[in-house]
Amino acid sequence: MNKLKKIPLQTKILGLISTLILLIIILLASIFAYLQSVDTRNQVKQLALQSAKTISLMPELREAIEKKDLEAHFRPIAEQVKDQVNAANIIIENREEIIYSHANPSQIGKKNVDHTNYHALIFGGSNNFEAEREQGSVLIGKVPIIADYGEYTRVIGTVSVEFLERDIYQNIYSRIKTIVIASLIVLLLGIIGGIFLTKSIRKDTMGLEPHEISSLYRERSAILLSVKEGIIAIDQNGLLTLINHSAKSMLNLKDEDFIGQHVNHVLQNIKIDDVLQTGKTIHNVEVLINEKVFIFNLIPIIENEHVVGVVSSFRDKTELKKLIDTISEVRDYSEGLRAQTHEYANKLYLLSGLLQLERYEDAFEFIQKESAIHQHRNRILFNQIHDANVQAILLGKLGKASEKKIILEIDADSYADPLPSHIEVTDIITIIGNLIDNAFDAVAHQKEKKVTFSITGIGNDIIIEVTDNGKGISEDVLHSLFSLGSSSKGKNRGYGLFNVKRIVESLGGTIEVNNEKNGGAIFTVYLPKKVLE
Amino acid sequence: MNGVRTMGKKMIVVFTLFVMLFAGCSLKEKQEAITDEVTIIAPSSTGGGWDITARAIQDILMSENLIDEDIRVLNKIGAGGELGWKYTQQQKDHVLAMNSSLLITNHLLGQSKITYKDFTPIATLATEWEVVIVSKDSSISSAKSLMENLKETPHAYKIGVSPRLGNDDQLSFVLAGKQAGVQPEELDFFVYENSGQVVDALLKKQIDVATMTLSEAKKYYDLNQVKLLVISSDERLKELPEIPTWSEEGIELVFEHWRGIMGPPNMTKDEIQFWDRTIEKMVRTKKWEQTLQKYMWKDFYKNSNETSKFLEEQSKMYETLMRAYRED
C-alpha cells in the first residue's frame, strides 16, 4: 500500500518537466500574443491613418467635393483603396458632416450623427478611435481634408478609414496558431528529453527509487552507529566518504567532519589508499596507532572491474588483550584456590596420619605452626587491608605462590581502606596482578624465591609496592620497560606493564621502578585517592 | 651635491608642469560655452510673434553686451512652426528656436511627430493676450453679438487664423464659442501663413473675423485698419482701456499665450548654464521691460529647469482641453 503512494521517479521527473515546459510555453505564448495584438493594433491604426491621409490628399477628392459629385468621380478610387488595404469601410464626409462615400450606399447623402469629427473639423487633427458598427467594433483612422486655396487653407471634410477588429483578431489568431504548433513540438522534445534524463538517473541509482535510497541511507547510518568496530570508507581519490563514531573514538579523533579530507591526513600509519592501486583484500593486519594496536581489515570496492573505493573495519587489539588477560587472571585464581584446597587436604592427611601414629606432640606442633602462619597472614590480610578486591587478588596470588614454592610476603605495615570508587576492579586486578606475576616470573629461577607486597593508603596516595629478589632489571631494558611488546617472555607478550602504566596514568598516578642493592627490583605505584580534575 | 642638483632640476620641471596644467584648467574654465555665432530660429515670417520676440532677444543681448558672439535671426517658415523646429532639432551648433504651445498641440493633433521632449528647454519668456479683430468697417459691433450670431448660424462668418489650426489663437476663440453655446465643429476657419495675410484677407473681405495675439493685431489697430472686439485678459489693459474683456461680453474666459526659447536636444550642462545666466540677465534689462511694454506682453520668465516642468504641465493641460472637444 505504502509503495503505491510513492510516485516513481520517472513519473515525477516527467510530470515536473512537462509542467515546467507547459508553464513556460503558456507564459511566453501569452506574452507573444499580447505583444502581437498590441503591435498589430498599432499597425492597423497607422495604416488607417495613412490610408485616410493619402485619400485626403488626392486632388480628385477636392474636386469631387466641390462638385458635390463623389459617386461618379471618386467612389471607384475609394473602393480600390479599400480593397487594397483590406479595410472594412472608407467614409468621406464634407464640412457639414454629410456622408459622400460609404460602403453601405443607403448611408450616402445622410448626415453623420456620430459626433466623431470635432478633432478633425475644428483643429484639423488626425486621430484614431474605436466605434461600434453593425458588423462589430471597428478601429477608425480619421483625418481632415484640408484644401489649399493659395492664400489660405480650409478644412473641407473628413476621411475615415475603418478596420473591423474581427479581421484584426483573425490575423492575430492565425499567428498564434503557429506559435501553438511550435510550442507543442517543444513540449514533445521536452518529454523525450525527460525520458532520457530519467533513464540516466535510474542508471546512476542502480534502479533504486529515491525513497528506497533514502531508507537505505538511514539504515546504513543506524548500522554504522551501532557497531563497535571502527569503519572507514574512501573513494577512488582517497578522500574519506565515511567514518563512523566508533572509529573516531578509537582513534582519539575529534568529533568533527572528516568527510572529503584525504585519508592520509587523518590516518598516517596505514596507507588505506594503497589498496586503491593493488585492489587486494587485506585481512587482520596489525597497526600501531597512538600506542594502541588495531587489527585492520581492508576491502576494496570493485565496480566494473575498477577499484572505486576501499572500506576498512578495525578493532582495538589492546582492549581485546586486556579482556583476555582479565579472564586468564580469574582463571589463575580458581587454579590457585584449587591448589590451596589440595594443599589443605594434604595437610589434613598429614595430621590424621600423625594422630593415628599417636604422635600427638608432633601433631600439636604442626597445628601450632600452621595456625601461626595463617593467623599472621590473615591478620594483615583481613585486619589491615579492608578492600575486598585487594584481599581476593592477594588470596589468589598467595595460593599461586605457595603452589610455585614462592614466598609471598605481605608487609606487616600494610594498611588500606576500601579503594575509592573511581578505581575499577579491572584496574586494580591489572595493576596488582601484573606486578605480582612479573615478580613471580623474576624469581622463578632463584634459589630462594621471595616476593614482598605492600600497600599503604594512609596519605593522599595509595602506594603499592612489589619487591622481588630476582636479578633486577638491566639498564638497557629499563627505558623501554613500559612500552608495548617489551617482554622477556617472548613474542606476543609484553602487554602487562604497558597496560599497567596506561591504567596508572589514566587514574592520574605514577609508576616507578628501582633495582635493590642485593639484586631484585622494586615496582612502586602511586595512585591518588581523589579523581583528577 | 650632484644628486641634489639633479633633484632640484627635476622638481622645477615637475613644478612647471603643474603650473601649466592648472593654468590650462583655469583658462578652460574662463572660456564660455558659446564660441561661435548664435542662430535664433523664428519659425514664422517677419513680424509674427516669434519673430518679434527673437529679434528683441537679439537686440538686447548684443546691445547690452551680454554675449560676445554675433547673433542672427533666421526665419524658417512653414507647417505651423514644424519646419523651423525640425531644422533646430537637427543642428548641433549654437542654434536656438522660439516656441509656444503649438509645439505641444501640433503633436496632440497628430500633425507632428516632434514633441517638446525632443528639445532642451532654455526659458519661458513672456505671455500675451489673445484678441478678436474685425475690419474697420465691419458690421460686427461686439464680441457678444458675434457669438450670438455664430450660435444661430455657425457658418455665418468666415474666421481667419494663422499659422495653423489648433494654436492658441484658435483655441481661445473655440473656448469662448463653446461657452457661448456655439457648435465649434461647424465654425468655418480659414488658415493663413501669418497674421499679415490674415489682416489682408480681413481687409479684402475674404474673411469676416480673425483671432490673433495682441502684439500681432496691435500694429494694424494702430494703423487704424482693424477693430479689436475683445481681449482675453482678466481686466482691461491700461494701454488699451477701450478694449473690453471676454467676461464683460458675458463669457468667462481668460487666456494667456506664452512664448519661450529652446535648444536642440543633448545640449551640454555648460551651455544650459550659460543660457540660464544670459537670459536671466536679459529679462532684467530696461530694454526688455520696454519691449514687454511695447508689445503689451507680460513677464513670464522661467529658467531651464522651471520651463521643463511648465512644459510638462502644459502638455497635460492641452491634452485634456483637446480631448474634451472630441468626447463631447
UniProtKB/TrEMBL annotation, chain A:
Major subcellular location class? membrane
Q: Which domain of life is it from?
A: Bacteria
Q: Which PROSITE patterns match?
A: HIS_KIN, PAS
Q: Which residues form the PAS domain?
A: 216-292
Q: How does it sit in the membrane?
A: Multi-pass membrane protein
Is Protein transport one of the keywords UniProt gives this record?
A: no
Start and end residues of each Histidine kinase domain = 350-531
Protein name (Swiss-Prot/TrEMBL) = histidine kinase
Instruction: State one molecular function term (GO).
Output: phosphorelay sensor kinase activity
Q: According to the UniProt entry, what is the EC number of this protein?
A: 2.7.13.3
What are the record keywords, sorted? ATP-binding, Cell membrane, Kinase, Membrane, Nucleotide-binding, Phosphoprotein, Transferase, Transmembrane, Transmembrane helix, Two-component regulatory system
Keyword Iron appears in the UniProt entry: no
Q: Which residues cross the membrane?
A: 12-35, 179-198
Biological process according to GO? regulation of DNA-templated transcription
Question: Signal sequence span per UniProt?
Answer: none
- What SUPFAM superfamilies does this protein map onto? ATPase domain of HSP90 chaperone/DNA topoisomerase II/histidine kinase (SSF55874), PYP-like sensor domain (PAS domain) (SSF55785), Sensory domain-like (SSF103190), Sporulation response regulatory protein Spo0B (SSF55890)
Give the record's GO CC terms: plasma membrane
| Catalytic activity entry | ATP + protein L-histidine = ADP + protein N-phospho-L-histidine
Q: Where is this chain's protein located in or outside the cell?
A: Cell membrane
A Pfam family recorded for this sequence: sCache_3_2
